[in-house]
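Re: that backbone. Tokens:
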């Protein structure tokens, strides 16, 4: 009879023997050393996954989404099931809502209240006033002056947009031959994973799901945790088979290291461990905090990590490979993209002249709109006023079997005012009211609660980002340690890629320093002993640091529960019940 595994709640392999999307699960017993370590960094939008090896300096980056085939009797849903949206639609002009071809629930009682229109008008006025304040900031004015100095280029841009036909133009199939939608077979596939899921058309019979948002299960999508876990398992298994070229029958020979948020949710950690050990049958698993990984990847054991992600920004202070202070700033890259939509579409229509009337302001209903404005933000936005230039941005809106529409828009000073809203967030607060995410109950399993890793109290702040950084560092005991944190700011995540980010953070944080602090310095990403390994893409910083730490420890990071190691950087470790003893 099989000897039970070392872990109580993971003893019975409930899911290990059932067929999966990629075939039958591997045998229940495996004895021997690991074949390797797979490092997984699951973000809100992208999954970073790869093998920790000397010749592998970067992970595979895959959109962490899956498109499930819709049942025939299901009504066509919005893509709200994929990306949560908290936009304040009453702050967006009614004309835009009327033009949108999106099914939105209508509150009939609210429409009958006499003060609804007045409230909406006041919110619109407040939003316009706050954006004007942002545009009158010295940095944005400097960008406007830089743009005006490019006189010839500015005149060319102005002349090119005088003809309304240039702002919106139809392209034939031959003119747009380079683009192809994802092929839908006959009969349709049960699911489509990753980038192919992003390039489906609205009319295709699929629902796109992003299982994780802000380091938690994306329950705002309306899906249950078991359904989100099924989606996550399918995405990870697809990535392992297709990208790492490891069959499911071989997974049991590999250890896995998974990156989690600093302010994690206990239920999330245990479900992820259960997924890795029981369902996917890894040999053993370890959980690492993202900010600890980022600091080690930069070659320092103590610093203040500012992680600017897709759905939120997290400011954490790391001391000797332990997170001692962490605050979540509820705005991330998706909110900047939504603000860019509003400024170009409604703030000053005559100035910006965006003719894409049916754009989705939430960027959560149409995947195509999300991709368009994410790419626009990354292409044009900067935190370096001297790099602002007169610019017309072009993008295409496509549908199957319909001619493509080409749009042109003058981005003007929005290229600086949008990223500056992180430091002056009043427009973001009006457009995107944020609530603290609720903790998912862990359940009454006493053993699972006893094994729960130490959890920081959840802290969220809507103060400007520079104040969030100061408050997080002031949570570190001792003025000497606080000065050390201010002189070691580490910027990671997609937002850290903006031109001028280092100089802007140093200047703006310096303006709000407490009296006992003398200087602010952002760590150059190339410094530190790990720099040759991390050459470095800031979005993949945590993944690279994990891979490096695994190599440095000769794969000792993933160990069994009964070893009871005392490692600050390993929050949770566990071995699969399928290994044998």
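Recovered sequence:
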């Amino acid at each position: 009879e099989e000897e039970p595994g070392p872990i109580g709640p993971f003893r019975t392999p409930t899911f290990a023997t059932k067929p999966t999307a990629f075939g039958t699960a591997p045998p229940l017993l495996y004895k021997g050393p690991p074949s390797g370590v797979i490092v997984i960094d699951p973000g809100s939008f992208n999954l970073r996954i790869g093998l920790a090896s000397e010749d592998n300096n970067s992970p595979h980056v895959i959109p962490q989404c899956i498109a499930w085939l819709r049942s025939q009797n299901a009504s066509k849903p919005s893509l709200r099931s994929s990306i949560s949206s908290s936009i304040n639609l009453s702050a967006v002009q009614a004309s835009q809502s009327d033009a949108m071809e999106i099914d939105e629930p209508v509150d009939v009682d609210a429409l009958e209240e006499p003060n609804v229109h007045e409230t909406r008008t006041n919110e619109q006025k407040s939003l316009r006033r706050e954006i004007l304040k942002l545009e009158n900031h010295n940095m944005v004015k400097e960008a406007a002056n830089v743009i005006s100095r490019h006189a010839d280029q500015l005149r060319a841009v102005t002349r090119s947009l005088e003809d309304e036909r240039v702002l919106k133009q139809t392209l034939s199939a031959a003119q747009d031959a380079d683009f192809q939608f994802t092929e839908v077979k006959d009969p349709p596939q049960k699911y489509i994973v990753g980038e192919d899921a992003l390039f489906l058309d609205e009319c295709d019979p699929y629902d796109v799901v992003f299982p994780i948002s802000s380091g938690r299960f994306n329950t705002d999508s309306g899906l249950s945790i078991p359904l989100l876990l099924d989606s996550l398992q399918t995405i990870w298994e697809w990535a392992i088979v297709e990208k790492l070229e490891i069959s499911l029958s071989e997974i049991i020979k590999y250890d896995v290291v998974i990156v989690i948020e600093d302010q994690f949710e206990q239920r999330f950690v245990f479900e992820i461990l259960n997924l890795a050990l029981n369902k996917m049958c890894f040999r053993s698993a370890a959980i690492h905090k993202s900010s600890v990984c980022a600091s080690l990847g930069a070659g320092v054991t103590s610093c203040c990590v500012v992680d600017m992600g897709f759905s939120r920004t997290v400011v954490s202070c790391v001391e000797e490979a332990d997170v001692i202070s962490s605050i979540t700033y509820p705005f991330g890259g998706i909110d900047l993209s939504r603000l860019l939509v509003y400024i170009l579409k409604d703030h000053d229509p005559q100035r910006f002249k965006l003719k894409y009337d049916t754009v989705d302001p939430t960027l959560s209903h149409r995947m195509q709109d999300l991709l368009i404005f994410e790419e626009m933000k990354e292409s044009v936005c900067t935190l370096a006023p001297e790099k602002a230039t007169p610019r017309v941005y072009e993008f295409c809106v496509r549908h199957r079997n319909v001619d493509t529409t080409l749009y042109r828009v003058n981005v003007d000073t929005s290229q600086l005012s949008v990223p500056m809203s992180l430091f002056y967030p009043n427009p973001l607060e009006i457009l995107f009211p944020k609530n603290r995410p609720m903790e998912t109950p862990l359940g009454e399993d006493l053993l699972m609660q006893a094994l729960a890793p130490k959890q920081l109290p959840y802290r969220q702040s809507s103060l400007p980002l520079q104040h969030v950084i100061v408050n997080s560092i002031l949570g570190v005991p001792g003025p000497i340690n606080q000065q050390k944190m201010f002189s070691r700011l580490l910027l990671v995540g997609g937002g850290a890629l903006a031109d001028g980010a280092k100089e802007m953070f140093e200047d703006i944080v310096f303006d709000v320093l407490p009296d006992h602090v003398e200087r602010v310095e952002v760590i150059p990403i190339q410094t530190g002993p790990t720099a040759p390994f991390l050459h470095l893409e800031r979005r993949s910083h945590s993944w690279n640091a994990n891979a490096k730490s695994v190599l440095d420890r000769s794969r000792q990071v993933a160990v069994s529960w009964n070893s009871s190691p005392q490692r600050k950087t390993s929050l949770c470790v566990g071995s699969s019940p399928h290994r044998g003893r």
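The CA atoms of residues 40 and 258 lie 5 Å apart. The mean pLDDT is 76.
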